[in-house]
Structure formats: structure tokens, C-alpha cells
Amino acid sequence: xxxxxxxxxxxxxxxxxxxxxxxEVADMYPRFSLTGMSQLISTALGNxxxxxxxxxxxxxxxxxPLLDWGRRKATxxxxxxxxxxxxxxxxxxxxQALRDVEDPLAQIAAERRRxxxxxxAVVDAQSSAKAAESQYRTGFVAQTTLLNAETDVLTAREQxxxxxxxxxxxxxxxxxxxxxxxxxxx
Length: 186
Known about the structure:
Layout: H1 5-26, E1 31-40, E2 54-63, H2 69-138, H3 143-178
Antiparallel strand pairs: 1-2
Helix pairs in contact: 1-2, 2-3
């Protein structure tokens, strides 16, 4: 089910919301930055690598979030609520995906049982039709009995074909619910 685009999108939204919390928590702490630079300065090529031609520069800075601490805490709480909402959407999406998979699975199992019963019904109808035909040839039954038996065979076959088609449709629905993505091995 992880192949499903809706599950993937919900999972990525949850991950992004969780990452946003980390960004906002990091903004609550002081920031320090250090920069440095070295330069070679010389007016003559002969003293290019001497100690007098090297110039070093360094600077540092610090930022403290003093006046907007409450706003930053509120932003963290807001991001946590956004993550909770993303989690609930993810959970709902996964539950819907499970439902989309389990429904066709249950329907396929029931239809397979029905299909097996219909196959037995076709066999039984065919043997009844053969018996009716042999009785008709010997004159024990009327032609309508034979026609009714043959009609029963055709009806049973029609129901079996309909069940086969239903099994195929349910299998397609299952593949769709699973997200497809099956590649043949080389």
C-alpha cells in the first residue's frame, strides 16, 4: 500500500510537519557565527610569502531571541498542532487504504466460493440434461422436460461466466487499491 500516491503524500506531509517543529525549536536558541579570512598582500614578488604580507581578519556575532520568546514558543506550539493534524490525516489515509484493500479481498473470497458452487451447478445441470435427453429418446419424458433441462444448463453457464467476470473486476479493484506498480522481473 506504500505505492499508493495518497499514502505517500500523507507520509511526506507528516515528515515535513515534523521537520518544521525542529526548525522552529532551533530558532528559540541563540545563534553564533564566526567568520575568518586570510589574505596575502604584498607590493613585491620577493616578499610575497613572508610574514609581513599575510593579513588575517576574524569576526564573530551572536543573536539572542530575548524580546520575542513568547512568539517563538507560540510558533512551536502551532507547528506541533500542524504535525498532529498531519498525523491524523496520515492515519485516516492509511485506514482508508486498508479499507480499499480489505473490501475487494473479502469480496473476492466470497465470489470464489460462489464460483465454485456455480461450477458444481453447471456439472449437475449437464448431467441432468443428459439424463433428460436419454429419457426423451426412450420416450419416458416430453420434449419440454428436455428443453427445460437444457435451459437450466445454459442458465448455470451464464451465471458462471458472470461470476468469472465479477472475479476479474474485483481483482482489478484490488490491484488498483494496492497502488499497482508491479514490474516484471528481467
